[in-house]
Each structure stands twice: as structure tokens, then as C-alpha cells.
Amino acid sequence: MPKSLPLLVDASPLCCTPLGSSDPLSDADNLDLALRLKALADPVRLRLVALLLDQPSAEACTCDLAPAVGLSDPTVSHHLKRLEAAGIVAKERRGMNVFYRVVPEALHAIARVLNVANC
Question: Considering the entire predicted model, what is its pTM?
Fold first, then answer.
């Protein structure tokens, strides 16, 4: 049975050189990247990120996201909490609703690390 990665509790920005560069990633950077990729490695979470990015206001409430992915509010909240723990989304409570938005810098950092254009 594969060993599961721990849940990320530090949502600080990911800053490291691209994979395949002359400077290999440190163990800590490898773990940070793996935790963020693990958070995204779920079809529902990818769909939620895509839906958030597609919103005109770049944010959405769980009450709007749940019907869009065909899941219950608690299930969607669980997935969004995992994305938030990885620093990929941020939330803001407004009254009874919680609105989520993608943190563009988080996605850009992952893309930068995976950029193999220099290889």
C-alpha cells in the first residue's frame, strides 16, 4: 500500500527552481511541491479550480459550486478545505456564505517549478 503524504498545514508560497535545472530541489521543496500536487490530483478538485477560474468575479460560494459539480455542500467544502490547506484557494466568509477564490500565485508557482522549457 502506498505511503500517504501528510496534509499541508503551511500554505506559504512555493519558491523553487524548475525541475531539471542544475539546482535540485531540497527535500523540503520536494515535499511542498508533492503536497500541492496531491491537493490538485483529484478530478473534483480540478473541476472546482476550473469553475472558480471561470467565474466573472473569480470567486464563488460553496452553494453555487456544489450543484455545478453534482455533489453535496459538505463534500465540496471538504475538497475546498484541502485546496485551501495547500494554498491553492483562499476563502472569505460573508454572512452565512463562504466564498472561495483561486490564489493565482500558487498556480503560477507550481507551473514555474514544472516548466521544462529549458531542458
Answer: 0.77
